[in-house]
Design brief:
Length: 354
Amino acid sequence: MMIDFAKAYEEKNKGFSIFPRSNTPKQDRLLLYGAPKCGKSALALDLARSYKHQILVDCADLRLHKERAQASLLKLFLEKKFGVLIIDNYLPEITIPSHPNIILITTKITHISESIRASFHTHCVRALSFEEYVSFSKGNRLESIFASFLKEGNLPEIALMPEHKRIQRIQEITLLYAKQDTSILAFLLHYQAKPFKTHNAFCLLKQQQKISKDKIYAFVQTLLDDQVVFTLTHKNGKESKLYFYNFALPYAISPTPSFQAIFENMIACELLHKSLAITYDDTCDFILQGTALFATPFPNQALIESKLSKAGAMYKECIFISIDTAIPQTTSHLGTYRAMSFIDFGLDYLCGYK
């Protein structure tokens, strides 16, 4: 069953636009992948607008009859009836015609064969960066936009929903993705912005519920493959910290969200958006090209000097990222440092890294 492109575009955008997205791919044969509800389908529809005669097939549509759809696609291809083909929720059993303009969309990148990946340009669609969020937000003041970003998270559709529906929608998205493993995903939020080993998580989780080691190892690997979580490696390679693609996820599915962990995760997502080579160590939250970054939402001079005493001499610069910049000084007897708000970090500082 072919889906009407114009109606699909209107449904996906619903009167708003999150475009242009940063790092929008330009290639004609695209394989878009990424975590749930990051805007993959909306991006594909927006890219396809420049072509004439768009064809859209959604393999998750229960009305789709695969054999008939396959025959229809072949007929349309041979008759040169479309300028671009979009296959959403792509399934490997769908044969792809040798057309120059095709966009495949998937969450399960590991289900795609090497031969398909080799013939397409793969592009990971991530949740919104703060810069992207600001670009389409209807808020007038940066401070209020930032407050919404921090509270509601970085998923495109959530930002533009009525406030009373947001948590329910995030829960729906989580349940649709994780299904019977939602409780495991909720448990893993305890490790947000903390050192993580799957074995340690298994040992703790099995005290709460009956679970096999194979199951949790496979689930964690699926989360990594699907870009739902990502890790940051210690500079000595001894351990990794765990982060989530939607930093505000704990507000929707955890009874005890950690503001510190959420704030650090938000910074990690900004760095990931820039594809920067970052690590961390025991003295700072992030290391970026010899600079130590600290996630300190509400810093005071005592906290800053405590961290400088451990990291100050090790790095060329120390930067403290906070909710605001109301920090009394930028020097101490331990050396100089920089303090900046997350707003300045996301909109100005990171712009220097291409």
